[in-house]
Design a protein that fits this description.
six-stranded parallel beta sheet; Rossmann fold; alpha/beta
């Protein structure tokens, strides 16, 4: 038997499908999770905030496999997990479809000035012209991040007739290498960030990168707030050195009410809702967990495994 300490939130989707070699222990609160954690050989410790997850993970001294619904787990004590030999599976790809759809929505809404259309509707003001006249077709996109989300974003944008240039270490298939994209920033109409949060990607878009972008360029961040130097972005938007920023993520989250981003008309904030704009996240996560249990029991690799050195 293997003891699995699991969130009761996932219980209805998982319990009827658990194999008989798994002894499930369910928790409803952080205190219950902390009490059960030392017994966990398999753990699924998701909470809405990072701090409880960190505490429970530290307490799980017998853990062999940690599973999570979240794709970004850079806040966990990764070095400790590596020292303990823990295998970590994250939520990479679970929300890729909805985040890709959300990205396209943000871009279309900006291009057509749809926020102004909605405001006019609320005023009962019948507009005689479109407040946005930009067409996606024919425009060039720099895509930083070609994982599950980035790949789906590229597929959808190419269907609109956009030219999408990804960044890859190999430089294969027309991609730019990591040391090449900054020199070509001025040739892109849109810059989309879909990278993981790591030391390498910290503030990868800063004052120098924003200065290199064309005045009509739009920055789209569906990654993490940490990949952008936010004060530098605020300054660039205030001075209208780029056209706009479409931000599903910020630093910190929630964004304080007095943060200047709220006041900028050329900043769209979608409050990290892209992954929540769907109803099948828990079902997909449960399906993946059950499949991985079979792999774990058979001694095969569980998927997708997080690289605890790289942080994603």
């Amino acid at each position: 038997m293997s003891t699995a300490v699991l969130s009761a939130l996932i219980r209805p989707l998982v319990e009827p499908r658990l194999p008989d070699w798994v002894e499930p222990l369910w928790f409803m609160s952080q205190d219950e999770a902390l009490e059960l954690a030392p017994r966990a050989q398999i753990g699924w410790f998701d909470f809405a905030q990072p701090e409880p997850m960190v505490e429970v993970v530290k307490a799980a001294t017998n853990l062999g496999w940690l599973n999570s619904i979240y794709a970004g787990l850079d806040f966990l004590p990764l070095e400790l997990l590596r020292e303990r030999g823990v295998v970590v599976t994250n939520g990479t790809g679970i929300n890729a479809v909805t985040i890709a759809e959300y990205t396209v929505m943000l871009m279309l809404a900006h291009a057509k000035g749809f926020a102004q259309v909605v405001r006019a509707r609320d005023r009962r003001d019948w507009l005689l012209d479109s407040p946005g006249k930009r067409e996606l077709a024919g425009e060039r996109v720099l895509l930083l991040g070609t994982g599950a989300i980035g790949s789906l974003v590229r597929n959808r944008l190419e269907a609109f007739g956009m030219t999408v240039v990804p960044v890859r270490r190999s430089g294969a298939d027309g991609a730019l290498r990591p040391n090449e994209w900054r020199a070509q920033l001025s040739s892109f109409d849109w810059v989309i960030l879909a990278v993981p949060a790591t030391a390498e990607t910290q503030h990868m878009i800063g004052a120098a990168e924003l200065a290199a972008m064309k005045p009509s360029a739009v920055l789209v961040n569906i990654a993490r707030g940490s990949v952008v130097d936010q004060p530098a972005l605020v300054e660039a938007l205030q001075e209208k050195r780029i056209e706009a920023a479409l931000l599903d993520v910020t630093s910190p989250e929630p964004l304080p009410a007095d943060d200047p981003l709220w006041q900028l008309e050329n900043a769209t904030l979608s409050m990290h809702l892209s992954g929540r704009a769907q109803t099948r996240m828990f079902q997909r996560s449960a399906d993946r967990f059950i499949e991985n249990l079979e792999r774990w029991q058979a001694g095969r690799a569980v998927e997708p495994q997080m690289d605890l050195v790289l942080g994603y």
